[in-house]
Amino acid sequence: MSTPTRPKVNPLSRRPRQQRLVMAVRGGAGAGKSHFIRSMAEAGIGRLCIFDIERKARLLKGVGKDFDALEIEHADELPEFIDWALSGDGREQNYDCFALDSWAGYFSAKHSEMVAAVRERTGDSLAQPSAEELAADQMILQGVLRRLCMESGKSVVIVDQIPAKGKEAKEDNEIGRVLPMTASGLEYFVDVMVEVSMQERDGEVTRVFQVVKSNSPAFEVGFEMTGNVTFKDFLDHMKREHGTDLPMEAPRPLTVPEVLEEKPQPISIAPTTMTVQELIAKAEKLGFKQADIVTGAKVYHSQPNIYRLTPEQIADLDRRITARVEKMNTAKVESNEPLKKEAAAGESGTKTQATRNLRRA
Fold first, then answer.
1. Alpha-carbon distance 315 to 127, whole Å?
2. What is the 3-state secondary structure (H, E, C) of 109-120?
3. Other Cβ atoms closer than 10 A to 271
4. How many alpha carbons lie under 13 Å from residue 238 in its C-beta half-sphere?
5. Topology classification of domain 17-241
6. pLDDT tens profile 105-128
7. What are the boundaries of each domain within the chain?
8. What are the residue ranges of helices labelled H in 198-301?
9. Distance between CA atoms of residues 162 and 330, nearest Å
10. Residue of 35, 183, 283, 336 with fewest CB within 10 Å of its CB?
11. How much is the pTM?
């Protein structure tokens, strides 16, 4: 059974048609990260879906009404839930933005499974994964980030938990650590990484959002927003500072076909190949013998058995025979030319003598 060919994507259909913002919001417990992702539901960019690993979204106002929160009971469920929302039946819910709360919760759960497997394999209750194992582990787990942040094509906020101050830097400097446990390469998948904390400013405790890593010219490292900051505040700042010709609310209509139309390929007729038997018959008809073919096969192709000649070798011998015949015919014609000229001259002389005799008479 033939396999159906996959339609070719039209590259011009992949030009950006909508502006979006992909953020990572990191902070300690109680800093207001969950309330920040809830503000996405009021940013005017469509319906929000939260993948709730910490199972705290039930405490947010408007859950199940203004936005959806899907509780992840086991870490292994997260990739399945994301596939459901992006390419499965969940597309009927028309989600326009996503949030993951939290990346540290998912990464830590999966990483602990890896550590347990290493200790079971080695029999050492204190064994730690090697740097190579950590790198491989991160590459696999980052598939979740790649799916959400890149393949979804939507605005996304990834919440990440920060442990006690100083602990993260210590982990990053330990031998065998390739990335901080909580970051785990998160910065490579987002436009902006923000740390949120409660700080004293002008005698009052306020919430501070500070940009610590950025791939966007609208957000410089060190840029801060304070107070009751929402996702819409970041969108508005991006519009003011960077400007954009792309709409935020909905993508522009597609003006080119999404797939390339397959043009019918011209039907090519494979040339017929000559067999050894046909070559022998043709050679004999032209006055050659089978022994001549055997000799040609030995001389030109080092093959004493003419029945093992390849189609290309048979075609070559056929061309040589045809060329030999044409050469012989040409030589025969040229050798007959002097005789024709002599005969023509003799006939001309006879006619001249006859004319003279008639005149004398």
1. 70
2. HHHHHHHHHHHH
3. 8
4. 20
5. Rossmann fold (3.40.50)
6. 888 888 888 889 999 999 999 998
7. 17-241, 276-355
8. 231-241, 276-285, 290-301
9. 95
10. 336
11. 0.67
